[in-house]
Amino acid sequence: MIKILAADPISESGLQVFQVNGHFKVEARSKLSLDDLKKAVADVDAIIVRSETQITADVLAAAKKVKIVGRAGVGVDNIDVAAASRQGVVVVNVPGGNTISAAEHTMALLLALSRNVPQANASVKAGEWKRAQFTGTELQGKTLGLIGLGRIGREVAKRAQSFGVRVIGHDPYASEEYAKTFNITLTTLDEIYAQADYISVHVPLNETTKHLFNSKTLARLRPGVRLINCARGGIIDETALAEAIKSGHVKGAALDVFEQEPPAKDNPILALSNVIVTPHLGASTEEAQVKVAQELAETLRDYFLQGTVRNAVNLPALNAEEYKELEPYILLAEKLGKFVAQMFEGPVKELKLGYAGDISQKNTTPLTLSALKGFLTPILDLEVNLVNAPHLAKERGLKWTETKTSQAQDYTSLLTLRAVSGSKKFSVSGTVLGKNDLRFVLIDDLTVDVSPEGPMVVYTNLDRPGVIGFVGTVLGKNQINIAAMQVGRRSTGGEAVTVVNVDSDVPEPVLQQIRGFAGITRVKCVKL
User: Fold this and answer.
1) Which entry of 115, 159, 280, 439 is annotated as an active-site residue?
2) N or C end of the chain: smaller count of CB under 10 Å?
3) What is residue 222's DSSP assignment?
4) CA neighbours closer than 13 Å in the CB half-sphere of residue 244
5) Which residues of the chain are modeled with pLDDT < 70?
6) Which of 50, 151, 232, 396 does the annotation list as catalytic?
7) pTM metric for this prediction
């Protein structure tokens, strides 16, 4: 009998998957104290949680028999994945179960925003009858700008198009072919700002997207635009949005997410009559809860009865001996992917992976998957792992190829990842020195010797006096400590690339200062 503990409330209809041939026994016990949770996991084979119960290293240590922990949702922040990996416990999640719910909630807010539904409802219930005050706007013939064309974005596009809406979209990692598949016109942010009657965001919150809509960008939007955010709080600067709405430049907004949840009572957004707010309801539907429970139950069922794993967060496709041998190269491949994703400007159509030297004789599949995982992780607002990375890449029209050669020039083994989009190319190569000393040794074929750790300022420039001194001065004035610096150049006075390892994040205003130096052609802050 396989014993499963559901430590958080899980949809009963979803858990019916376990009622097969008497193989499983599910015990539902939520809101347990830490001591009671440790006792409850002592003899179970699997644990299911949502977001409330914390599966810490201590809890895992008490779960002597547990083989798999499942999260009925996307994030696994409440599970100590590293501790689970050390203990040999597989961690799985459900990355796509709330897609339709989030897309439909976006449409609900878009429609409510167009027809003043919440305001009119409140007015009638207050005994009023002010039809003229709540005159709305038709969707037909309008332009919707989608920022982010992942699963939710494309589902929103389908639904909006059924209302006769023209959909344009921006996603730096989507190809034109991918967008055309969903009848979306791929364009720039500037074009969306200029053309869109409605803008809906569907991107993760990171350094690039934080306050994407601020006082400056809001001023560039088409007058009368309406904004919808069902993605992540912090993408829109709420104070700046309130001011833009008060001025009349932005006609209205609908927000399901906030920088602080719940929002503070003095948040200026809450005082505006033409702003609709909901308490993070994007995934809160009965169907979504059933879907995530059912998909998770099927994943656990197949794991125990068939030995297959889907949506694994921490399971490499290797046996223990192979994994130990390839572990540093798996980590290196992921860092190469993350580096390329953050350095390449524009959509990537193809990734070319090259394996040279001894590594070419090994099983490179997990390395390729790790590179894809690294490349997609900064881009997508969901957990990317070795299992779902190829599927997610194919969904976005991304191709990848492998080449192998026994010759590795000056290195025992060399991994190269090259991004290609038309005539644009960018590459980085890395190796492992000694046991676990990871190094980037080539950037666009320029020789470097970089430790790929933490935040790094990477800039290209013409090799001339004063550049390094200027960059060092700017970083120093902003209290950013330099840990290491490497310069690669083709020839004296020619093209050069410089990588500066720093001890803290580099804010965008500091990068702008660096970009102002004559001869510097590109500056990025890359986080690995």
Assistant:
1) 280
2) N
3) P
4) 27
5) 75, 315-323, 387, 493
6) 232
7) 0.72
